[in-house]
Amino acid sequence: MKNTKKTVRTVPLLIGGALVIGLASPASALEALPKQPPIPKDNPMSAAKVELGKQLYFDPRLSLNGTVSCNSCHDVSGSGTDNRPVSVGVGAKTGGRSAPTVWNAAFMTSQFWDGRAATLEDQAKGPILNPIEMAMPSEKAVIDRLSSIPGYREQFTKVFGGANALTYDNIAKAIAAYERTLLTPDSPFDRYVKGDKKALSAEAQRGMKLAQEVGCTACHNGVNFAGPALPMGQGFYAKFPTFSDNEYVKKYQLDADEGRYEVTKNDADKHMFRVPTWRNVALTAPYFHNGSVKTLDEAVRVMAKTQLNKELKENEVKDIVAFLNSLTGEFPKQTMPRLPATPNMSVVGE
Amino acid sequence: MKNTKKTVRTVPLLIGGALVIGLASPASALEALPKQPPIPKDNPMSAAKVELGKQLYFDPRLSLNGTVSCNSCHDVSGSGTDNRPVSVGVGAKTGGRSAPTVWNAAFMTSQFWDGRAATLEDQAKGPILNPIEMAMPSEKAVIDRLSSIPGYREQFTKVFGGANALTYDNIAKAIAAYERTLLTPDSPFDRYVKGDKKALSAEAQRGMKLAQEVGCTACHNGVNFAGPALPMGQGFYAKFPTFSDNEYVKKYQLDADEGRYEVTKNDADKHMFRVPTWRNVALTAPYFHNGSVKTLDEAVRVMAKTQLNKELKENEVKDIVAFLNSLTGEFPKQTMPRLPATPNMSVVGE
Predict the structure, then answer these.
(1) Start-to-end Cα distance in chain A
(2) A341 occurs within a structural domain
């Protein structure tokens, strides 16, 4: 939190999003991943809470028919996404936006493509009740179901205390606590900025320079390459597409979604999207809010044109892609959770 | 394999299935879970093969649209099933049979409810291509997709050797090797038969005796309580329902499915089903091939009536359920696999 406050003081003008396009990257733009993400004061970490959160994250019983868990669309065994254009919810329903990665999401200053959740806690509450995602009918239905599972009742009491520990807020807190452990340090880039000058190839080094010179890092800066470390909930947004009179916008229908406007109904928010992280971006194809672009090299071309009105040469695209590949971090080994049982019965029906 | 052969010599008359109903349990009926399952000579175990198999088991890219993995329906974090009446495949398609548990499946002498696969290797090949499950269009499509993932290409070569290591057979071998590690030893029952007489409650001990006296263990015997250790592929079947003129058969539509007959078209196989394991049965609700019975106590009542034409008293049901609960084993800690990446692109589409 200390770090967040300090950074805020240096970049107060960036708050609000629309104004930032084209600003020169601050000197601190390229930073190694910190060891710890910001932890909200009202949700301190503990091993027992993280373990509970992991169980909830992997538990398909948080969905109406027991087929979709958080992990179904944000796969911790992989890229933290489902690598699909858009995700598939209960009953094979689909929406219009692609699942963002859960890895390093703890560093994002707002959640969802439109930033409609301020924190990981707020985010976790959404998909469980979304009729095209996990489709539970109400918070009460979620609490009732988890209350019918003895292992959850016990753990919520142990972790949160009190007579009424199994609440929707506490479900979200446990999931968010687990998600704050999902960090990928030690990418070649991180090793490079920490002093290992051999960690990046010549190609990747050229790409890094180019990304700054061309202007990509005006938005893709900060520890997560997703904007500065604003206070949680402030969010960092950019208009996408900024330049819409080009073939890419048509081909990939990039202006069909009005982004943050759909949340705020404020005209200034039309086509504003949360700036996505570049960390592990090489692993999270397909790209953009609608998952319409299949490969990273094409995504780089599209961004240069739609955001900076520039056409990159193929060797420039290649160099930038090499740099983006250097942002793939080390994925920490995970133990699998053991989901608490319901002996002699099942709590998911038809 | 040695153990299997020995057992076969002692129970040759049981081969064939239909004849076994009503046979007294052999003296060896109640056995602790061995440390190792039978390992086929043509698929020896190795750490690298098991690790590859685990990745494949958890990888939704084995399904048409990247949404369904083996683990989706046979959840290793839980009971090894999805605890649903029937599973949900790609496009929310459903079939007519409930997913059997993967835990201790290595001890089963045939696979699927109708025994249509002789081995775990054979079984693994089915759901990937089943249009209502993982829905891949052909073996070639599966091989092509996995071949586009560098980490799989490398591992198949390392594990199986040769120029053409990534074959459908080898995919199945790796998955089966992983599945052979999914054993749950040290249930209260196992500790009891190994000499810890306090491991079972008085209730469970009464239930154990009753299950033998009533006749349940005529079929539910052997290390997996799923019949004797026949040679792999022989399978151990029973007619279900045997007595069909009762309310349960109507209520739960237990005679709608013709079982093994649908595979063999042999009249003697009508309504013959593989005898399911009792190990961890307390965790695998809902019950029976169609998942129609929601609780274990009701499943016990149904089985007594449909298989033995007996009506149990409620205290007898309770005792048998207590015994069945004592068959819940220790689930070994699992590390999560890391799925090999496809940098800069995705291999799952719409």
Answers:
(1) 45
(2) no
Inter-chain CB proximity A84 and B66 less than 8 Å: yes
Using CB atoms, pick whichever of B76, B88, B346 lies closest to residue A83: B346
Residue B40 lies in a domain: no
Cross-chain residue pair A336–B333, CB shorter than 8 Å: yes
Whether A73 and A193 map to the same domain: the answer is no
A133 catalytic? Reply is yes
Domain span at residue A157?
47-179
Q: Which of residues 269-298 of A touch B (CB under 8 A)?
A: 282-283, 285-286, 294-297
Establish whether this prediction's ipTM goes over 0.95.
no
Same domain, B116 and B236: no
Quote the pLDDT of residue A5: 38
The residue out of B119, B154, B179 marking a domain boundary is: B179
Residue A330 forms part of a structural domain = no
Considering only CB atoms, B84 lies closest to which of A336, A343, A348, namely A348
**Are A196 and A169 in the same domain?**
no
Residues B119 and B173 placed together within one structural domain of the fold: yes
Decide which of A179, A206, A241 is a domain's last residue: A179
Ordered per-residue pLDDT tens for chain A, 350 residues: 334 433 332 232 333 333 333 344 443 458 999 999 999 999 999 999 999 999 999 999 999 999 999 999 999 999 999 999 999 999 999 999 999 999 999 999 999 999 999 999 999 999 999 999 999 999 999 999 999 999 999 999 999 998 899 999 999 999 999 999 999 999 999 999 999 999 999 999 999 999 999 999 999 999 999 999 899 999 999 999 999 999 999 999 999 999 999 999 999 999 999 999 999 999 999 999 999 999 999 999 999 999 999 999 999 999 999 999 999 999 999 999 999 999 999 999 76
Task: For chain B, positions 130-159, list CB contacts with chain A under 8 A.
Answer: none
The CA distance from A66 to the nearest CA of chain B, in Å, is 7
Could you say which residues from 51 to 80 on chain B have a Cβ atom under 8 Å away from some Cβ of chain A?
58-61, 65-67, 72, 75-79
* pTM, full prediction: 0.93
Same domain, A219 and A261: yes
Cβ distance B85 to A350 less than 8 Å, yes or no, reads yes
Instruction: Give the span between the Cα atoms of A280 and A288, in whole angstroms.
Output: 14
Tell me, yes or no, whether B128 and B18 share the same domain: no
Show the low-confidence residues of chain B (pLDDT under 70).
1-29, 350
Residue B320 CB contacts under 8 Å (≥ 6 apart), including other chains: B207, B210, B211, B214, B216, B300, B312
| Residue A289 lies inside a defined structural domain of this protein | yes
A296 closest CB neighbour out of B83, B333, B344: B344
Q: Are residues B148 and B59 in the same domain?
A: yes
Q: How many domains does chain A have?
A: 2
Can you give the CATH number for the domain in which A8 is found? 1.10.760.10
Residue of chain B whose alpha carbon sits nearest to that of A338: B77
The answer to whether residues A152 and A191 belong to one domain is no
The pLDDT of residue A4 = 40
